Amino acid sequence: MSTDRLPSTSLRLGLPSGSLQSSTVDLFARAGYRISIPDRSVFPRVDDDKIAAVLFRAQEISRYITDGIIDCGLTGHDWVVENGSEKEIVEICELEYSRASSNPIRWVLAVPEESGIQKPEQLAGGVIATELVNVTRKYFANKGINVSVEFSWGTTEIKARILDAIVDCTETGSSLRANNLRIIDTLLTSTTRFICSKAAWEIPWKREKMENMGMLLRGAIEARSKVGLKMNVPEAKLAEVVSFLPAEKSPTVSRLADQQWVAIEVILDEKLERELIPRLKRAGATGIISYPLNKVIP
User: Fold this and answer.
1) What are the backbone angles phi and psi of residue 14, rounded to the nearest 5°?
2) Burial environment of residue 217 by CB neighbours within 10 A (0 to 12, 13 to 18, 19 or more)
3) 164: in domain
């Protein structure tokens, strides 16, 4: 694939294609970056003329960063480790999101439920199928277990019954359960990372742009599980309401034209909202407004 459309005068950004593509575009939107992807194109349009983006498989992004093809990108920590890129890149920030949830993914060693294998040592002399070949080989080598590790081109779960075991990634465990597979060990836990090349990090304007982007992406991540609340509270009830309101620092309290009332605004975890709103109402709060957040910058 030609990368002629990635000028060196722009910040060259690699975005993951495939299962992470949609959630990544959504994350950037909440961070304030509008990304559109024309049909059959691998060059997304970003509403910032100093950013030139390209779609790559997440497995490839850290390699293309170390090779100088792109300046920065989003990829899983697992693929940074698999490609041996840890010492060749700068990790700007961790972004806890994935294709289905905010859970980290785990690369696990799994066997059929009916298998008699209970621990890795029992796989000596066996064949293991996985996409994460280098990490898997290192795992068994560190344990002194001699196995053959084969690259899997997909449908890895099926191969657990053809070979001896698999190393596969799981986010919720549902696919492993559906295929009646049993986990016997975890090799690696991974989340998405925003990374860049050391060369790009040393260029002041690129570094500032990447730091800004990282801050806004982190802010969008932080905002996912939070909501804002606004309400009016009688002055006489202010101390009681403030005593049970959670807040990062303290609630924002503003005087109203009617001196017997105040307005309060607070940001809180969404899971607290359903218990808190009835309590606020009973304490005398009125005009309670709940609203979603795009970004929360600590």
Assistant:
1) -95, 125
2) buried
3) yes
**CATH code, 142:** 3.40.190.10
The answer on 182 and 156 residing in a single domain is: yes
261 and 287 share a domain? yes
DSSP letter at 12 equals E
Over the stretch 90-142, which tens digit does the pLDDT of each residue have?
999 999 887 655 678 999 999 999 999 999 999 999 999 999 999 999 999 99
Pairing between strand 165-170 and 127-130?
parallel
Q: Determine contact, residues 168/130, Cβ cutoff 8 Å.
A: yes
Angle between helices 21-31 and 204-223 (to 10 degrees): 100
pLDDT tens digits for range 70-104: 999 999 999 999 999 999 999 999 998 876 556 78
User: Do residues 135 and 107 lie in contact, with contact meaning Cβ atoms separated by under 8 Å?
Assistant: yes
Q: What is the length of the chain?
A: 298
Q: Which amino acid is at 232?
A: N
> Per-residue pLDDT for 225 more than 70?
yes
Q: Is residue 6 part of a domain?
A: no
Cα gap 276→90, rounded to integer Å: 42
Q: What is the DSSP string of 175-234?
A: HHHHTTEEEEEEEEEE-EEEEEEHHHHTSHHHHHHHHHHHHHHHHHHHHTTEEEEEEEEE
**Tally of domains in the chain:** 3
CA proximity to 88, closest of 54, 62, 69, 58: 62
> Does the pLDDT of residue 52 top 70, yes or no?
yes
Both structure tokens of 14? 């690699």
Full domain range(s) for residue 282: 226-292
Per-residue confidence band for 248, with pLDDT thresholds at 50, 70 and 90? low
